[in-house]
Amino acid sequence: MECTCDYILKTQPDWEEHYENCKVKWIAREKRDYPKNNDGTLRLRNKHLLKLDYDVLYHLGLDTKTHDLQAMFGDVKFVCMGGTKYRMKETAKHMANILDIQCDFKNIVKQGHRYALYKVGPVLCLSHGMGVPSMTIALEEILKLLHYAKAKDPIILRLGTSGGIGVTPGAVVISSSALNDTLEMCYKLAILGEEKKFPCNFDKRLNQELLSVADSEDFETHLGVTLCANDFYRGEARTDGAFCDYTEADKQTYLQKLLQLGVKNMEMEATAFAHFTSAAGVRAADVCVTLLDRLLGDQVTPEKEVLTEWQKRPAKIVGNYILKYYNK
Length: 328
Ligand code: R2B
Ligand code: URA
Hints:
- The protein has helices at about 25-30, 70-75, 85-100, 130-150, 205-215, 250-260, 270-280, 305-310, 315-325, and strands at about 55, 60-65, 80, 115-120, 125, 155-165, 170-180, 185-190, 195-200, 220-230, 265, 285-295.
- The protein is an alpha/beta fold and about 325 residues long.
- The chain has one domain (about 35-325): Nucleoside phosphorylase domain (Rossmann fold, 3-Layer(aba) Sandwich), CATH 3.40.50.1580.
- The protein has a 5-stranded mixed barrel, surrounded by 4 helices. Strands 1-2 form a two-stranded antiparallel ribbon. It has a two-stranded antiparallel sheet with strand order 8-9.
- Helix 3 (about 85-100) packs parallel to helix 9, helix 4 (about 130-150) runs parallel beside helix 7 (about 270-280) and helix 5 packs across helix 9.
- Bound molecules: 1,4-anhydro-D-erythro-pent-1-enitol and uracil.
- Uracil binds near residues 266 and 268.
């Protein structure tokens, strides 16, 4: 079997040789059919889809009957995802600027009334809302969209915000792995009334490449474990929610435990994001700016201008990466 790594950056001495979605690595790990065709297009393995006359991507307000998804999205190579519509529009503007692409910044999924999707040439910028359920609905529909569009070897990057643990506020954390809310390295989902657990791995090689293009920026970027919480307040060990049933000392003990486990930030999507993308054979990374150091407090207090500036940081790193790809 042949390696299918389509290298974005040239291998450096201490880098991983293969991407995690290389056919050789993927099959050895997952022990089932590779989810991509030879031309890099996505093969969704859900056989039920074949029974549909046409497929409705309900939350995106798109379908395969009235939209020619291949004509609309066949050229897509990068998908940037993040929580808010504002941030994803700003991300789209950044990509248009660095790639020198004219764009009307029209929300292509406005008719779905849920998310925002902007297309800047081969780059999609999609808002996904907060938390795993909102994010996975957007991600699952975008994976189907990429499949119907026959997009080749797409790469998905989550550009998020997070709470840091022991890192300078404003620093960016790229997730090496993700822990769920019970501190297991897996994504949990109840299916037909039974809890199922799925692996949630990130791509070491892609992370090494992203770290290398973060080097030129004037802010810190770290590689670290990400805790994926199911709630912003108690789920992230805050004491400033409407409810709190533990002491400040309990909270500090927990945060120290996270620190020991290598956790550098907390957000609310990482495990599911890692699972869905890797199961689809799509290379992906979670790149989040930290808005505060949780060892020092719970409230997000920096001035709006500072937060707005910090929130551009993941897009700067990802923009450098995309630019390298097109300039190579
Ligand atoms: C980070 O920020 C949001 C909560 O404020 C959530 O979507 C996350 O992961
Ligand atoms: N997002 C989170 O999930 N937690 C934070 O502390 C900040 C942003």
